[in-house]
Amino acid sequence: MSENTITETTNGHDEAHTPSSEDLHKLELQRRTNRDAVSDLGLRPYGSRTPGLMDLIEAHNAYDESSDKANKESVAARKAFKKDNPDASEDQQPALVDDRPIVKVAGRVVLARDNGKLVWLNLRDHSSEAFQIAVSKRDCDEQGFALAKVLDMGDIVIAEGPLTKTNTGEVTCWASSLRPGSKCLVPPPEKHAGLQDPETRARKRYIDMWANPETTRTLMLRSRIVSAIRRLLGERGFVEVETPMLQTQAGGAAARPFLTHLNALDIPLSLRIAPELYLKRLLVGGMPRVYEINRNFRNEGVDKRHNPEFTAIELYEAFGDVESVMDVTEAIVREASRVARAERGIEGTTLSYGDLEIDYEQPFLRVTYAELFEKALGFPMSDVGKARAEAQKRGYKTKNEKGVEFDDLWVVNELFEGFAEKLIDPARPTWVMKYPAALSPLTRPNEEDPSFADRSDLFIAGMEIGPHYTELNDPDVQEAKFREQLSGIDDEESTFRTFDEDFIEALKVGMPPAGGMGLGIDRLVMLMSGKETIREVIPFPFVRPKQS
RNA sequence: AGGGACGUAGCUCAAUGGUAGAGCAUCGGCCUUUUAAGCCGCUGGUUCAGGGUUCGAGUCCCUGCGUCCCUACCA
């Protein structure tokens, strides 16, 4: 008896814990009946520890042509002998040859074809969409065959047996035993169309994952990409750190934070919107190259490219600059694309995204903010009067409700985002370099022209993937920029924008010159997996809670 | 926040304002090389909720709830 066999005559279910039948859908009731049938066979419907399992793909690859042939020939020879010598005894027959590899596998039943005394099952696991098991009355043990007759789609089973090829050439585990892995009491989605409803897909990801194998593949690709990034950064001497998620002041970005409260000290706290100011403190302390891959929380809009919590990598390199961290990012994106191509079995050097074919092996294009602006608008961005007129002509606001004129560069940037960004070829990863200094409060101004900052943003497929900076490490300049930012903001904004004095204090201690960057992991995985919504690449994206 | 589309069986989807349907799944029967197995038979619905118009509403109107898309917002 295997460890999956029970000897006591209980079905293992306390009647008191069984929901009243009136509450349940008839399809679930039927499945509960089928679960009882499993118990009645003396088997545990919910399985138990099972050593020695192979992934389905491993089992498939373990097939051995010559041993299968030898076995089939010996079976045929015995059959022929028996036909010619009907009265011969067992031991006079030709020997049965069977060196076929035996595999032990587990998976969820996604298709089943019951031919009477032969039941075909297709199992699915993380490695394979469908691996065939044959459960025959002749060759499988009695309990296993009986189990095959009472299975429901979606059940998890464990099969063991030799590998053979069917008449149509499909590698199949010809089960000698079949045992329950787990019962699925919930009616599964349609077996071909899968689960389509986007709401259910997000809410019940555990169903989506097995009904739509692509979902699992995407989430596994995400994991492999993140691992590859860690490996690459480790090789380059970067150390991974963790900095506070709960912050007394949510700094390092301009976004509304989520607010919470620390009871022990009776003080308000924010969930972080970025780790930047803490990572820089680590540079002050003497860590040479640091990064963090972790969650940020922003209390802003939710749409196909924004989730309230999202994963970003932030990275800082002491004695580097914007160029050195751009190199790191190009290496990361290129490596991620290689992982994605390998994982998805894609030949060549491109990955598709919508209609685009994006080549990540070529060096990324480089343009400056000013060049792109002039190309799009037809006049240099230094001509702020013209910019203001142009903005008004194109219907942009140039002053606030109280009639106060917006800053020149704010107007320039509106035009840039409205027109210049559209000139970037979405199929070519592109660096936009040298942003206006006024837009980048944490960036060091360019040495030759301080009206520009040494900041570059990476654009791919029309998405802003992440900013890169030569970090500002002069505490006085930093303090002045903070104060400048805080002036001229309205009351609502001032409730969540605060002045981080300790950060200035840290800079006073002395931060080495440094390059820094931030990169959205979710958006990177969207590009690498070809998914056009952020929900596809997050295991459990935010969904509105169900009303009871 | 504004605009648009949608909500029908467990799932995927149909149904000029005129008897709510199909496929798959389920349930019963047959079948030892099937693979979207096949064959025979059965079952399955408060058409998101609540109002209204009408002889008659899944369909038209209103309100609410929910989802998706576009726009806006969002270093």
Give a written overview of the molecule.
34% of the residues lie in helices and 23% in strands. An eight-stranded mixed β-sheet has the order 7-11-12-19-18-17-16-15, with helices on both faces. Strands 1-2-3-5-4 form a five-stranded mixed beta barrel. A three-stranded antiparallel β-sheet has the order 8-10-9, with no helix packed on it. Strand 17 and strand 18 form a beta hairpin. Helix 7 runs antiparallel to helix 9, helix 7 crosses helix 16 and helix 11 crosses helix 12. 34% of the residues are buried. The N terminus is likely disordered. It binds one RNA strand of 75 nucleotides through helix 1, strand 1, strand 2 and strand 3.
How would you classify the helix and strand content by structural class? alpha+beta
State the helicity in percent bands: 25-40%
What percentage of the residues does DSSP assign to strands (E)? 15-25%
Number of strands: 19
Q: Report the C-alpha radius of gyration, rounded.
A: 31 Å
Query: Shape, please?
Result: elongated
Major sheet description: 8 strands, mixed
What kind of oligomer do you see? single chain
Low-confidence stretches: 1-18
Largest sheet, spatial ordering of strands:
7-11-12-19-18-17-16-15
Instruction: State the distance separating the first and last CA atoms.
Output: 47 Å
Mean pLDDT: 89
Number of helices: 16
